[in-house]
């Protein structure tokens, strides 16, 4: 393993608009590269420019805590609502093995706790248990949310595709401890691996496990296979362990620069997810109201509309709610100033206006509640 300590110029990355998948407005990568070595990892794709060997050459941003202090000063000075501060990775996992030695993620959490900032964590490592004390403190003072990612809860399958992380059975135990500590948490079922973990029975096992632990959500996503080292690594594992699937993959992954499977394939995942969500009463989005005090009213409207849009499209229904949310994200002024002219915003008709007025009045939307609870 090659470890390179680097001094970064900045640590927080501000998003153009709040991310309704993770409820974040800021994200950070403390490390670059990840020794967890998941076969399907999108972070190893060349477009993210992680130099060297993704799983054996890791960069450590040793000045991350110092930078964070300064960048939080700015957020405080602007009296900005920060959303949840995301430790989600993308090109790393904040709890990969070297974190046990460097403890930078722990320092970051101490700063967030001390300064009353909320956090959203996404990891595949049971090392996160080490920091339950800090997450509990953050949760009591502001908000903490923990997501654990899985491609299934089957230990044997995980050994093939996620050789460098604890087995799903151990990850579930970690989530149980988080729940006992009063921290909201759930499953990111990402990616579902075509023809391996996307079958009804496999998905049902995930819902059963989540229901047993009273988890708060299951957010799922399909696999993208970008050309280059991600695809090469993934298919070498498929060739070794599931050679009979090669032809089926060729049917759904036609060459394209985004690495997407066909729309038809992704749409086929919706039906089992919706049905199991209804059966086990587990929502398919992170329930927003528990965290909404971290957002402005404009942002609340945008996130609720995006959740509505997502949930309708899962049901294969047409929706302009996402388009409306996008256009609202361009508003510079508080939405109350547009309250009587909402229909002049593209994508907003009578029904959407009614939903927005309800959110402005009550902070809630009945329609959203119904969709989220999948009634
Ligand atoms: S834990 Fe996440 S970042 Fe690390 S290898 Fe796996 S998918 Fe990639």
What does this entry look like structurally?
The protein has helices at 64-77, 99-102, 104-114, 132-141, 155-161, 168-180, 200-212, 229-241, 246-252, 263-280, 297-314, 321-328, 350-362, 366-372, and strands at 2-6, 13-19, 24-27, 31-32, 57-61, 84-87, 119-123, 144-150, 184-192, 218-222. It has 2 domains: 2-289, pyruvate-formate lyase- activating enzyme (Alpha-Beta Horseshoe); 296-372, DNA polymerase, domain 1, CATH 1.10.150. The relative contact order is 0.10. The chain is an alpha/beta fold and 375 residues long. Helix 3 packs parallel to helix 4 (132-141) and helix 11 runs antiparallel to helix 12. The protein is built from 14 helices and 10 strands. It is 42% helix and 14% strand. The strands form 2 sheets. The protein has a 7-stranded mixed β-sheet with strand order 2-3-6-7-8-9-10. The protein is globular.
